[in-house]
Amino acid sequence: MIRILLADDQPLVRAGLNTVLASDPELQVVAEAADGRAALAGVERSRPDVALLDIRMPGMDGLTAAESLRASHPALRVMIITTFDEDRYIARALDAGVHGFLLKSGDPYELIGGIKAAMNGGTVLAPAVAHRIVHVLHGGELRNRLAARSGIQTLTPRERDVLALVGAGLPNAEIGRRLHLAEGTVKIHVSALLGKLGLTSRVQAAIYAYRAGLAE
Fold first, then answer.
1. By its UniProt entry, which Gene3D superfamilies does this protein fall under (predicted)?
2. Cross-strand bridge partners of residue 6
């Protein structure tokens, strides 16, 4: 029996997914959650084999919960099921090491088969998601985004704050005002983060911030 935690903030969606999963005698939903924090607590209580998480939930979102669960429960199979197949979500999920990225619009048997495949050590992607990854990888953009997300881990929290505002196109004076820093201190942070990331200009920093998900 494969034990599953199901996290989605919409009761009707949870009910529908429960119906799909209950159609297979090898699957059992042992816990439900309406947000990411409840999902973390549910994993601690019920010790499922699989955590099936929606992305957009109040409080802690599914991707943040997935990152936390991958770090704290390496044996747990963490899967995303969502209506959103945007590149930034896919990149972040893959960077977190999830075992599946499925769409709610997919075939129910795709979900059941995906859970079983993940339990056997596979990484399962919805066909539409796989197509997007192949398309983006062909241009190298997903690779750049994953590298950017890795690179920002070398920054201090303050440097990440500054990078996000550089990505928003703000000058040093405005960044200083928002972060309650002297303009000279902002310049020092900008210089430091450029050096750490191997960048040479604010334009490059703004692009980096977008790829890392710090700026729209």
1. 3.40.50.2300
2. 32, 52
